[in-house]
Each structure stands twice: as structure tokens, then as C-alpha cells.
């Protein structure tokens, strides 16, 4: 976000292009992550992402694609995100009955639960974005040079910082919790984690801390206590993730059909669950 911003004379001329490159690099990493998620999910018959973070993420992308973005590059990025999210959504719904076999209510209603989260996320993100952009100088610091749809002092960078930060925190916490709860790497891999981690760091803190370094008047929000909680929580979970992944991979087992199960799971029960799922399909 913020590719149309006009920085003060004290900032280098390359600041906005450089921040746009960082944001674009983050987009590419997340696109690769979506591809890897889909492949791993279908290969191991396990959902690649928790339902709540997926619904929140989809809602955030829709609101920004249809309402917040204005630059062609930003719109293209969100459009690609949504396009690449379709296979992830398909893989999630296809593998949900098997992944949630121990929770029949969730297994039977995964699509409905995801829809509820999506609608709630859509309304929340749309309302927050509308409120943020309705008046000038919303947020932290002086917003001169921050332009949105020809309106001065509307900072879409800080808007994205808060809304994307919450979505990312839900993703990071949810991914780690899912890995611990399952005790196996179904739907997960080191490559997925690396793309997700790199995409997050480049697109969110990387971009905004660069802007703060050369344009602190408008980007002091990166040091807000709430920012430290959001970014710190996300980073702590993401840093811990590969170590937990390595731990569960030591004990997990791979069934003949590619399904990955925790080491203490009864293989016969897992096979029966898989057979029932295949019959339904």
C-alpha cells in the first residue's frame, strides 16, 4: 500500500519505489506459499490452513481489492492473491472432513463455518476501512503526503498495518496451534513456512520499518505498544514453527495413500476414516 504517497523533501526519492518492491516481493512469496499449500494439502489429505484465519484472510483481500487499493500494481497483487486462494479454498474444503474426523460437527459444517467467518471478516474490514478513510489524519502522526483517491492525509499504509497485522497474527497463531494439536505435518512443510514467513516480513514490517526510518512523521505507528504485541506475537509463533515442525516429523507416520498421521495415532482407525471419506467423494 502507499505506492501513490508523496514523501517529504527530507526523504530519499527512492523510498516509495523501494517500499513498493518490498511489498511486491512479499506478494510473490505468498503466491508461492498458496501453491505449495494446495499441493501439500491434496497430497497428504489434510487442511493446509485453519478455518478462521483462512476466512479472515479471504475477507481482508476482498475488501482491499474492491475498496482500498487504487494503484494498478496493488490491485494486480490483490487480484492474484484472490485467484491463488481459490485452490487453497478448494483443498481446505476437500480435506476438511478427513482432517476434522475427530470433530464431526466441524467436519460436516466446515464450509458453513468458513462462510460465517468470511462474512464477519468482510463486514469488519469494510467498516474499519470506511471509518479510517472517511476523515483526514486518521492514525498516528502527520499524514501530509498520504493520498487516497485524490484525498489528502488518508494513510492506507497504516490502515493495512493494523488490519493485515491482525489477520497475520491469527494466521501465525493458528498455524502453530494446528501443528501442535495435530502432531504431524499434514498440509504443512518447511517450504510453506519459509514462503509464509518471508512474505510476511517483507510485506508488513519490512516495508513499514523502511518507511519509518526515512519518513518517521507518518510511520511512528510501528512502535505503538499494540504494534509490538501484534508483530511480536506473529513473529514469535513463526520463529517457533519450524522447530515444532521438526519435532512432529520425527514421530509422524505416512500411510500408503500419502496421509500423514501423528506417531501415537491408531493406523487402523486412520485408515477407516480415510476409507469413509473416499466413499463420500
From TrEMBL:
GO molecular function: lyase activity
Record bears the keyword Nucleotide-binding: no
Membrane-related topology note: Multi-pass membrane protein
One matching Pfam family: Pyr4-TMTC
Native species: Purpureocillium lilacinum
Localisation per UniProt entry: Membrane
UniProt pathway: Secondary metabolite biosynthesis
Family according to the record: Belongs to the paxB family.
Entry keywords, A to Z: Membrane, Transmembrane, Transmembrane helix
The protein's name: PaxB protein
GO cellular component: membrane
Amino acid at each position: 500500500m502507499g505506492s501513490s504517497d508523496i514523501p517529504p523533501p527530507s526523504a530519499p526519492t527512492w523510498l516509495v519505489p523501494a517500499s513498493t518492491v518490498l511489498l511486491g516481493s512479499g506478494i510473490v512469496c505468498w503466491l508461492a506459499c498458496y501453491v505449495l499449500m494446495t499441493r501439500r494439502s491434496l497430497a497428504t489429505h489434510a487442511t493446509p490452513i485453519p478455518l478462521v484465519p483462512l476466512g479472515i484472510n479471504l475477507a481482508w483481500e476482498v475488501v482491499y481489492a474492491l475498496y482500498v487499493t487504487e494503484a494498478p500494481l496493488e490491485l494486480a497483487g490483490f487480484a492474484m492473491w484472490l485467484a491463488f486462494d481459490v485452490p487453497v479454498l478448494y483443498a481446505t474444503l476437500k480435506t476438511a472432513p478427513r482432517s476434522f474426523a475427530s470433530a464431526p460437527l466441524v467436519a460436516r459444517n466446515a464450509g458453513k463455518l468458513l462462510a460465517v467467518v468470511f462474512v464477519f471478516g468482510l463486514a469488519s474490514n469494510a467498516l474499519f476501512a470506511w471509518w479510517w478513510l472517511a476523515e483526514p489524519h486518521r492514525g498516528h502522526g502527520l499524514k501530509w503526503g498520504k493520498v487516497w483517491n485524490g484525498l489528502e492525509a488518508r494513510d492506507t499504509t497504516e490502515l493495512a498495518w493494523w488490519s493485515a497485522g491482525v489477520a497475520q497474527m491469527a494466521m501465525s497463531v493458528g498455524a502453530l496451534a494446528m501443528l501442535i494439536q495435530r502432531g504431524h505435518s499434514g498440509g504443512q512443510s518447511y517450504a510453506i513456512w519459509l514462503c509464509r514467513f518471508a512474505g510476511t516480513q517483507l510485506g508488513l514490517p519490512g516495508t513499514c520499518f523502511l518507511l519509518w526510518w526515512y519518513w518517521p512523521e507518518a510511520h511512528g505507528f510501528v512502535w505503538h505498544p499494540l504494534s509490538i504485541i501484534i508483530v511480536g506475537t506473529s513473529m514469535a509463533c513463526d520463529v517457533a514453527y519450524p522447530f515444532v515442525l521438526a519435532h512432529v516429523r520425527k514421530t509422524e507416520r505416512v500411510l500408503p495413500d500419502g496421509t500423514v498421521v501423528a506417531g501415537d495415532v491408531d493406523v487402523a482407525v486412520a485408515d477407516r476414516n480415510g476409507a469413509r471419506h473416499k466413499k463420500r467423494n
